[in-house]
Every structure is written in C-alpha cells, then in structure tokens.
Amino acid sequence: MSETTQAAQAAKAPAAKFGGKGLNVGIVVAAIVTIAGLVLWGVQLSGGFVQTGMRNLDSWGLYITMFMFLVGLSAGGLIISSVPRAFGMKGFGGISKIAVWTSICCTVLAIGFVVVDLGQPLRLWELFAYSNLGSPLMWDIIVLAVYLILSIVYLWATLRFEGGKGSEKALRVISVIALVTAVLVHSVTAWIFGLQQAHELWHTALLAPWFVSSALVCGVALVLVVIIALRRAGYMELAQENVVKMVKMLGAFVCIDLYFFACDLLTSAFPGGSGTGVVNMLVAGPLAPFFWVEVIGCAITAVIAFVPKLRTNPLIVVGSLLAIVGIFCKRVQLLVGGFQIPNIDYAGVMTPYTVTDATGSLTNAYRGMVYWPQPIEFSIVLGVFGLGALLLLLGFKYLSLRPTEKSH
Amino acid sequence: MATQRLGMIVDTKRCVGCSTCAMMCKSENNEPEGIWWNRVLTIGGEHLTTPSGTYPNLTMENLTVSCQHCNNPACVKVCPVGATYKDEETGVVRQDYDKCIGCRMCMSACPYTGVRSFNWEEPKYPIGIDTGDADVPKHQKHVVEKCTMCWHRLAKGLQPACIEVCPGRARHFGDFNDPDSEVSRLIREREHMQLLPEMGTNPSVYYLV
Amino acid sequence: MSGTDSSQGGLTRRSFLKTTGAIVGTTAVAGAAYPTLTALAEERQTGQSASSEERISQGICRPNCFGGCRLNVHVRDGKVVKTSMAPYPDEKNNRICLRGISHPWRIYDPERVKYPMRRAEGTERGAGVWERISWDDAINEIADTFMRVQEEYGPQAVAKWSVSGNRGMIVQESYATLFNAMNASSIGPGVDMANAYGTARVTGWIGIWSSNGPDDLVNAKNIFLWGNNLTSAQLQEWHFVADALEAGSRLIVIDPIYTQIAAKADLWVPVRPGSDTALTLSMMNVIVKEDLVDKTFLRDHTVAPFLVRRDTGKFLRMSDLGIEPTEGPVNSATGKPTIVDPVAVMVDGSDAPVPSEGAANPVLLGTFTIQGIECDTAYRLLCDEIAQYPPETACDLCEVPPETIIELAHYAADGPVTHRCGWGSQAYDNGVHTAHAGATLAGLVGQYGFPGASYGPVNLGVYPGFNTKLSSAAGASTSKTVSIMDLPEVLNTGKFLGKEYPIKAAFVLEGNPLSTATNTNALLDALPNLEFLVTADSAMTDTARYSDLVLPIAQWFECEDVFGGRQANYVVHNPKIIDPLYESKPDSEIVRLLADKMGLSDKVFQSDEEWMHAYIDTPAGEKFGITYDKLKEAGVLGWHSSDPVIRWEGGVFTTPSKRLEFYVETPTLAGATAKKLDVEREHLPRFFPPAEAWPENEKYSEYPFTLLSERSMYMVHSQWFGTGWLRELDPEPTVKINPAQALEKGIDDGAYVECYNDRGRCVARAVYSEAIKPGTLVYPKNWQRHQHKAGSWSELSSSVYDPAAVNQSFMDVLCDVKVWDGE
C-alpha cells in the first residue's frame, strides 16, 4: 500500500521531529506521484481506453476494483471510529480522528477511481443535471457525496469538540448519522453489482451485508496498521489494550466475512446447477490464486487475532496486512469473476475490442483471467494513491489528529 | 396513446450464419473498425462455423445477436444520466452518445454479453469515408453504443437495414403489440425462444426454432 | 465454445440451456404478449430511401460467384457510401451478401492500385519495388513489347491470360476482341469444368452448368447436394432450399465436411473425398438390384436399348446392317441436309434389329450377335459396370455404410428428386465421372424433365440474346488456347502439341492465376521464360505483385457494363456511377488505347455505347424485347417467364440421339491438350481413384492428409482478400483440422502450422474443427501470398488433370502438417 509506505517512510523520523523534513519529503514525493498520475490520466483520455486492459466483454477493470476496495476501507475506518461514540462505548484510545481522516482520504480515492474510469469525465456535470435516481450508480454517487461531507463534518465537529467547542451530544448525533451513512455507502456500492441479474457471481442478496463485513475487516485492519505505524513513528501514544481490542474485533469481522463467503459458496454450489461453475471458477479456476490468498490470509488473521500469544505488534501488522490483501483479492474475484462467466459464450467475431486477449478463440480468452490490467492502469492507480498519500500526509501535517484525552 | 413494441424475429432454421446482416449493420451505421453491433454466433465449437460433437456425430446452429431491445431493459435502469433509455412510442431502447458519460454501467448490466460496445479509442475508418446513411449520428470516442434498430430508418418509415438483406430470408420486423403484424403471427404459429428469459428482461427479439 | 477442457467446465451446457430453455408454447405467449391494441401498426417498408445530398443508382455485383446481385449504389459527395440490395422484378431473386455490401471498402481500399506501375529496374519479379509511370508510358511499353514479341516469335507468342474475375460483358469481350485481332494465344483457366463436361456428355450441352431453376427445388421430394457447400458458395440459392425444407423436402448432403448446409440437412453422409463416383455407382447397383429403375424412361429417353458394338465401342447403326442412311432436314448451321442413320435396337419377340426411333418395347438388357457383330445393349454395359459396386464393396471405397447406401438409393428413386452436384466432388482427377455417374443415376430412375426432377450443378442463366460473335469477328485466331496446367511445360519447352509454340508475353485480366490456379511453384519456375507479364487489376494480387507492369482498372461502379444474368434470368445494366478513382481506367478504354497504339483501332469499337448497341441489339434480343436503350432505361430486363426453368422437358435432351447418353459413343477431349484420351474408359461412368489423394498412392505414407479447400463466405475466389470489413470477420489464413488428429500431431488450436508436400508449402493458423473428417485438412481458398506467414495454398496442389475435362484437380492433393518452425 503506497500510502502506508509513504507514511512509514515519513514515520521513520524521530518522534520529536515528526512533521519535520521526513514528512515534507513524503508530501513532495506524493505530490510528484499525483502529478504523474494526472499526466497519465491525460494520456489515457487522449490515446483512449484501448490502452487499458478493459474491453467489451470485460468492461470494468482495476479502477472499479480499487473503487470497491477503497469504499470498503473508508467505510470500515469510519465505522470503527464512530461506533464507540455513537453507542457511548469506551473507544479505542483516541484513534477516531485518524480513522476518520484515513477514511476521508479513502473516500476521495474511491471517487478518484470512478472518475478515472469514466470515458467522458467532462460530462460529470450531467450526473447532477440528468440524474437517473433509479440507477444504483446514482445512489452511490449521492451516498458517497453525503458520506464524504459527513465525514468531514464529523472530523470538524470532533476537532471542535476537542478544542472545547460544541456539545458531545451533537458530536454523538453526527457520529450516528456517519455510522448509518458508512453502512449505507458500502451497501449501495454492493448494489451497483448485486442488483445486476446479468452476472451470476454478483446477483445475491448477501452482497450488501457481505460488503459491509468486508469493509469492517479492511477498515479495521487499515486503522490498525496506520496507528501502529504512527505510534512507532512517535506521532501518537496508544495503549496496547486498545490495539488488542481492535485486533479482537478484526478477528471477529474476518470470521463473519469468511462465514458469509462460505454461505455464498454453499448456496451457489448446492443445487449443482450453474452455480457450480461459479464455485469451480473461484476454487479451482482462473481466479483460484485470489480465492486462496483471501481465504488463507483471512484465516491466518483470525488465528493471530484470537491466540493471545500471537498478538505481537509485528504479527498484528502482518495479520492486518493479510486481511487487507485478502479483501483486495476478494474485490478482484468479484470484479473479474463477474465477467469471467459470460451469459452468452458462443464463438463469434473477435476484434481487438472484444476481450483483453482477442488473439485466439473466446474459449482461450476465458481460459485464464478474462481481464488483466495494463501498465497504464497500474500507473494511474499509483497516481491516485499518490493523491491519497498526499492528502493523508497533509492531514498529519496540518490537522491536529493526535489523540487527546477527549478522544475516543 | 397506444404504443408499439417494435422488434425482430430471426428464424434460426433459415439462418446459415453468413454475417450478411452483420455486414449491412456495419455499413449502414458507419460502425468503426472493430465494432459489430450485430454478430453471428455459432452454437457449436470454439470457432465460428465449427460444430460441437465428435465427427461424424455433430450439431451446429447459428444465432445472430444484437441489442435485444428488451421490454424490461436492465441497461436503462442503471444508466446514471439516462443516456440509454426506452423510447415510449416504439419500445426501442436508445442510446444518446452526447449524454453518455462512459461509465459502462449499462454494458455490465446487460445480460446479453457483447451486444453493447464501447469505443475504446477514437473511432477508426481506414477507408477515410463515412459509410451508410447520412442521418446516422457520428460515433464518439469513449461512449457506449449498440444496435439502434436503425432508428434513422424507422424515422423514415423503413425497416432496419438488416432485415431485407438476409440471404436466408430469416429476419422479420414488426410490432409485437399489433396482433395482425407478421411478427405477431409468426410467434403465434411457430415454436420460438427469447434469449436468457430467466433474466426477466423480455426481449423484443424472438428466435424461431 | 464447447469448453470441454475449459477451466469452467460445463459452462456451455449452462448457456445453451439458458438460451434454449425459453422455448415457449404458442398459447402461453399469445396470451401474455398481446394487450388488445389495434390500429397503430404503422407498417414500415423494406428498401432504401435517399437522404438529402444522396444519389442512388443501380449497379450489379459481378464476380464469378453466380449471385449476380443488383445493388443500390449510394453516392454522397461523389463517394460510394453504401451498397444495398436493389430488387429484381420478382422478389424471389432479390439477394445480396456480405461481400456485396462491402464494396465501399473495396473501392476506397487504401491498398488499391492507384497508378500504372512498372517493376523497378534491376529488381526481381515479385520483389515489390515499383515505380509509378504515366499511362502513355505504360501503353507504349505494352504495345511495343507485344508487337516486338509477335514479330520475333510469331503471333501466338502473346497470350491473353484471363480467368473469371469480372462477369461484366464489355470487359471480357473488349479484351477478347483485341487479342483475337492480334491473333494471340489464350491461357485456358481450366476451372471447375469436370461437372459441366461430365453432365453435358450425358445430357447434351445447353450452356455451361444447367439444371432446373432454383425456384424448382421446392417441388423436389428429395434434394441431394453432392460436394456442394451451397450456403457459402452459392448463398443466393439457400433461401430456395430453405423454402423446400419448409415445404417438406428431404435434404441429403453428401460431403466429407460438415458444412453449414450439412447442419441443415435431414441426412448428412460423410463420404471419403474423391469417392462420390463409387457411391453413385453403388446406389445404382441397389436400384437395379431392387428393380427401382424407370424402365419406360430408360426405353424412351435414354440410350439404354441402343446396341453397342463390342469391336468398336460405337452404337450399332442401321448402316452397319446394310441399310443406307437417308437425308434429313437441312442443318441451319452448315446449310447441308443432315444424315439420318438410326441406331439399332432389338425388340422383344424379334430377331431382327430395328431403328431405335419408334421401336416399341426395345430390349433393355441383352447381348446379341447380329450379322456377326457382337453387341450389347448400352444398359447391359452399364449394369455390368455397376455390378462391381454392391454396397459392401463400395463401402470400402467411399466409407459410407452399406445400409446408408441402400437408404440413399431409395431416396434417389423416390421422386421427384433433384441432385445438385457441387464443385467439390469434381475437383479430382476423376471428376468427370462423378458427374457422368450422377447424371446416369438420375436417368436410371427417370428423374428428368419435370418439376422437382433434375441433375446438374446449378442453373446458370446465360442470356442467349447477346451477339457473342462480335469478338471472334475481329480476327480468325489461329493461335491456340493453352490450359494453365499445360502452361509451365509450354513455357519451358516452347512447344505445344508437338510443335514449336513459344509464348513470351502475357496480359492478365479479370484474374489472379498465381493465386487461384494449382501448382504455383511450377508456374513460377516457368515464368522466367516469359519476357513480359502485365496485369490489369484494382488490387495488388499475387499475380499483380509478380508482374512487370500493373495497370489500375476502374472498379465496377466506375464504368458502364452489362451483365448477362447469373442464376436469375435477367440482363442487367450497370451505368457508370462515379468517376474512376485515382488514375484507374475502365478495361474497355485500356483496350482502345492499346488497339490504337498497335494499329488495330479499326478492329475495336470506338466507344462503349457503340459496342453496347452492337452487342445487345440483336435479332435474338429483339424477341425478348431487349435492346440497349430499353435496358439502359429499365436497368434490368427479364428474358424468361417467372416460372421455374425446367430442363429437358419431356425427356428430350440435346445429345445427338436426343436421349440421355449415359453411354458416350464418342468421348472427346475437353480442349486443346497434349494428353491422350483413354476412350475405352470414357464410354461409361466408372470409378477410378483420384490421381493423388488416395491410400493406394505410394506418397500416401509420406503425406497422409487429403488437402481440401472450401469457398468461404469472406471472399469470392481471391477477390475481397484485402477488404477490411471482411478481414475483421476472417482475419488471416486458417486451416481446419480435426482436434483429435491435431492433438496426435501436437498441434494446438490457433498454432501456426505448415502444410507441405513435394510441390510446396503453406503456413496458416490451425483451427480445431470437428467438422473435418480425420485424414483431411480443409483450408478456405485464395488468401494472397503476402497474407501468409510463408508459402501459399496453391503451391501444394498439382497440375494433374483428366483430358476429358481439362480441369484443375484442386482437391486431389496429399500433404502432411506440422507445427510451423517460424522459417
């Protein structure tokens, strides 16, 4: 994860000097990466999407995968930070501002990924002028916008509250709304996929709750990685008990997520009909590497979370990263898997626009992963992450996100 | 006002997969290089015009597939800006290139794999001329397009271009809402199917089998 | 995709169920789909309407595909933006195909020949280095060279080398006029004539390729297609077959390949390539054995009762028995009375032979000694021949199970029966006999001369009203036609038919023989003997690329022409619709320029219009009401009623005896050829193995695959080879192979493979297809050499031919296949 790398680099500076030269270097590097990304985005738009790996039969790719993934990270982060406040519980040691800021950055990234995926970004204004309120994508855009604004308001209110202004009650109200929105945002994102009868892998009622559980897994994992890193870097103090609390939660969420997966696989496979194809594709087909990395990675995370002896900081980071990677693999499975099983797979004309690998027969194209990204997609993804890192670091530099005694 | 449900019938018993309809579609609509709104698919082996089975116990059929102009189109529901929409008067599912933001939501929502295509780059015309009808809208980079049911021809009182050129005389066009139309008669009289009926889209393209 | 080895095994079945699971009963849908709405049916019409700024003219698509589709040519801003279907006066003949629609691409093909070009000085032929020259230079160089060569080597030393790329009459006839005036040689294309000659020697000649009209197919109870992938090669006929199927006809397809039409058939009979004759003889064996023959037809309409002399093989004539011939009516052609010398037959209950005409109840099966002359009835000889092929024996030859042969025989006897022999079965050394046997089979069961009963490849409607003597009138040609199979030897030895016959310069028109003809390497080896090779074409074909000079010709809509009908009995006019592109010129103008330069301008017509009048305004045309002026106005004029053409009505044939001559009294060569005809073999339909593609051939152990070609839907012969729209559907040369055999050979689907034999090689992409009979490979024909990774298909085929047909044996080819090593 580039932003964590950046953060880690920045964090190498001694505690006293946090925010000093290291952070500035990080900011500059992130800015350069962002600008490079912008230039490449221009290249993608002028030279055409043909430079990506996306084609008519696999019309979405890495950008939408990253979109799903980052909405999850973002929602997870916000839920973690707002739940204690919303329910008046004991928090996790004042990490909520960092968690909210992280999730704001992730939201911006998620929106960024949708934008770079658009063929006609200059027509974005039409979303507001000609809104089709029946479209799940429209719902998502609305919810994402509301969510972003709410996150910012929540962060602002928290900062104000910690600065002695505003009431705790108001903050609590905002946190409840933010929580609901966070759950909603990920559900709606799930519905972009889950309401499409065209893709067997996506079309399940389980998708929304499952997206929420996945969001919790990677959101918590991300917050864990960030706070452990920041603590190491001397940016903040945090009692280990709070970390352990969160690790236990992570374990629980991972189990819930795996449970949902198991439910889904069983439901697909049991009738022995077309769903068997879906299960085969995941377990033993082209997407199997992603499936097994997710399942095994998440299982290891759960073990680390539940075996007290293993809850050492390095292992917690490893477990968290495994959970994040696992959920990323989940996203890849979902996105590519949705296109991997065409409804109509008969032989027909193959042009360079048909499918990523249009050199042989259609069967051949589906033999491996039907889609894989091209260098420009990786580069633009990096650029978008550069933007995220930039925001994150700027936040660390200019916002007072360190825990205070009033923090949750 | 009473509405039409314009649609097509393809008689698979008469279709030999010659791609003439696809070629007419391509020329009439000035489809750029690499774009085929209407395609012949072979129900058989892994390549066009190859059978399934083991020699000499073989079967092979053809299916021409383009936008199914569904009565309940999945694409229309998901388009965030209404760039793809159903024409109320005719039931034709239309696509507004000027409005399309290129999000490809409709491509993903459409169950009929491959009937929608995206212009992944500036449309290419190696022969340097615009072919087909003058009233066909210009193709645009980075927007989604598909069979328009030859909207420009419908507007002039003509059938879609693919219908009359079929060498097998396998294609029919008409109004399924008019019980006296040829297409209505054909589906009354002949065994037929729609593609992927379990999707609930109720296509206005029927296949006689 | 069949996806048996796909990682998501079972997918296909799933999709198939999904798509076909929707078959709904009529009532269910009728109930659901019809709200009772009425009176809104705004009927939309077929056809074309010109948008503003658009002009629509009618032209004709005229490659040698038999289609003859009338096209609307849509012109906007001076450019052909669309070609669409223009109707014929009767709807049943309306037609177009994907190639006809692709004309805009052909016309504006960036690779089109734009200017006269000369091979650059000091470069090899085929090196691809060209210099642009002016028309003046081009015409001067051609005229000068032709005149010099004729001066030096004799008139025959210049050859007109044409195939069949443009069926516009002015093109063919203009060149014919010029080259006749020059007394030049011709290179005979030798294409696809075995079924024509094989049929015609039995039924008589009535123009090339005849049968009942396609609209008569619907009257047939059983339709046999022999080696005929009609759905690709004669697509315009398919809808008639489809109508017949809907009307209940049974379709039987005999083909080693599972073609599109085999997929539509009630019965597909996979036969060993080159063995159709054995199968046909065996069907006759069954028919005779089961006494399914039509004896009345045999007696009255065939030579079955004719007595054949054992000593000469000729019919026993009454003059042989001492009865002097008499004079008959005057022959209009010769101006002399015809000689009447009837063939003798025996009649039941009499020892004395009688003249065949009017003989009641002649003996069909018998052997007699008459005045010391041993004779058999022709039918006896036929029966002896077919007796050698009981189904059990034939099965070993043609790989069709005996019970299937019996079934086929029953269908063939269950009339009305229409046989369409295609061009697949005749593309072997033994092809004449395939058609000879087929034509005999139909006669044995009386399937001629009434609706639904027919044997033949196709009914090629050739308009009889044109003045076809115009071109021959230009000069009495003493030069000969040399078949393309003989050409290498003639070029190498300078001799033909035992005499000096140097050919030193050639002009290639409406053809691409270095791609479409067999055994290209033999030709290429011999061509250095040719001092000068000119090609007139609009595309850089294999032949153009190998020429010394290339002339850009006007595309079909860039010049006026007239078309004499192809599978529709119409004459069609094609006006000049747009100006010739770049520097291209119409062929007729090129002819005029050359004639002018060579001092032959008085031999050719000075304008197209003049020629049109002379060619079209004939007494015969008058009878059909067809004149140039009328044609120009109408665009299309018919010369036959709209009823189906029925050939041989009343069982009257155009043979000398007016009967079906399954016994050919005097077999003849099909053209000038150095080869000798084995007359003995040619009297009756006989099976003999193909010259090359047969297991008895010693080469078979080395080259175990029979290499078959197919006409794909994506080209017409080699035309449209570079048309982008078609190349998207069919991007590169392929060879289809049975997957099991490919696996044995270690060939992956999609791999580049090299097919090779002693004559040459060709590299193409392997396509797994279960349609392919193990032991065969099938390639779509006529990709150009530069489109292959290496070699070309025509390198592999041989020059062998049967003098009875002088026909290229396109499929009589053995080869082996291996993964291409990239060399």
TrEMBL record, chain B:
The keyword RNA-binding does not apply. The keyword Cell membrane does not apply. It holds the Pfam family Fer4_11. PROSITE patterns: 4FE4S_FER_1 (PS00198), 4FE4S_FER_2 (PS51379). InterPro entries: 4Fe4S_Fe-S-bd, 4Fe4S_Fe_S_CS, ET_IronSulfur_Cluster-Binding. Residues 6-35, 56-89, 91-121 form the 4Fe-4S ferredoxin-type domain. Keywords: 4Fe-4S, Iron, Iron-sulfur, Metal-binding. SUPFAM superfamilies: 4Fe-4S ferredoxins. It comes from the Bacteria. GO terms for molecular function: 4 iron, 4 sulfur cluster binding; metal ion binding. This is 4Fe-4S dicluster domain-containing protein. It comes from Gordonibacter massiliensis (ex Traore et al. 2017). The lineage of its organism: Bacteria, Bacillati, Actinomycetota, Coriobacteriia, Eggerthellales.
